[in-house]
Amino acid sequence: MQAHGYVFVNGQVVTPGRAEPASAVWVAGATIRAVGPAGSRWDGEPINAAGCLILPGFIDIHTHGGDGADAMDATPAALERLSTFFARHGVTGFLATTLAASREAITAAVETIAQQMVRPLPGAALLGAHLEGPYLAPARAGAQPLAHIRPADPAEYRPWLASGAVKLITLAPEIAANRLLLTEAHRAGISVAVGHSEATYDEVLAAVALGLNGVTHTFNALPALHHRQPGALGAALTCDALYTQVIADRIHLHPAIVNLLVRVKTPARTVLITDSVRAAGLPDGAYDLGGERVQVCDGAARLPDGTLAGSTLTMDAAFRHVLEDTGVDLAAAAQMAALTPAAALGLAGRKGRVAPGYDADLVLLDAATLQVRLTMVGGVIVYPAEYATRNT
Length: 392
Description:
Blueprint: E1 6-15, E2 18-19, E3 23-28, E4 31-37, E5 45-48, E6 52-56, E7 58-63, E8 65-66, E9 69-70, H1 76-88, E10 91-97, H2 103-117, E11 125-132, H3 154-162, E12 166-171, H4 176-187, E13 191-194, H5 201-210, E14 214-215, H6 231-238, E15 243-247, H7 255-265, E16 270-273, E17 285-289, E18 292-297, E19 300-302, H8 315-326, H9 330-344, E20 362-366, E21 372-377, E22 380-383, H10 385-391
Helix pairs in contact: 5-6, 7-8, 8-9
């Protein structure tokens, strides 16, 4: 990229808190240097964003895979493939998400993620690892391999934490051994979410006092809400400290439930995720997830017994769905897709807004169709490929 950077002109900036009808954005290096009215003049290569929305790049903090690759493949090639695939769908940063598996398999995945985090990838930036398991409740395994679910063992997880790659952990806090992990993770600056859990309302609130700050795929793999036993869902809905992940694919949740969650939690505490698996972006058919056979039919991924096994959702589709299903405006949807996930990871000071001083992670959406037209990561255009090749 040229030293003077880029100037996006004739577009509409949409960022949490505001939407401007005609704006210009100046990017120099890896940073947004200025945002101003149409006609602003800065030194940079112009990009005509006429007919497009300029949004902060989407951040997916819960994705296992897509385009035939999976985080548990534990190879640089798999992570590069995911990076490229996600960028096509407006994602500028992601957490490669593991699942319950052997110590050796998870260690291989975490070590590969740690190595790739410090290397430039062809598309979306790899922000770290999300450990979804193995420290879950067996009764709420969902599509997680039951044979590999176990209580937290310091001898096992401490090397994973020491790698520096782990940024988010999903666990069942009602299990005593898992609470020690929660405490250690919080001390290390790692976010922790309740998920695949049978925790009571009081157990979740006690975990919040230890540092718990999130809820993994809210409503899924948790007991149903009961008016006398509010459980984890009751805590998720009423505790302001908790960020609530949501799979807005119209399969895991009815649109009315997504609408309910957004109304109760507000966009400031609602995190759009995909929970996507390797089948995302590919035709219906049979795929592998943690050694289990997953059948995808009409976009829904299920185990042979009918259990939902992740999704084939992409973040741009989730963005469109939440707009249609909740009636929020573009700025609020951008908040749920970018700023709120950044905040859940402690990155809200530099990611998730189109504002001076923020990372130059941007996505251009067609204003009429909301399809991705361009993705920029750290000031580098990574999608479409032909533009990236011509300008880098």
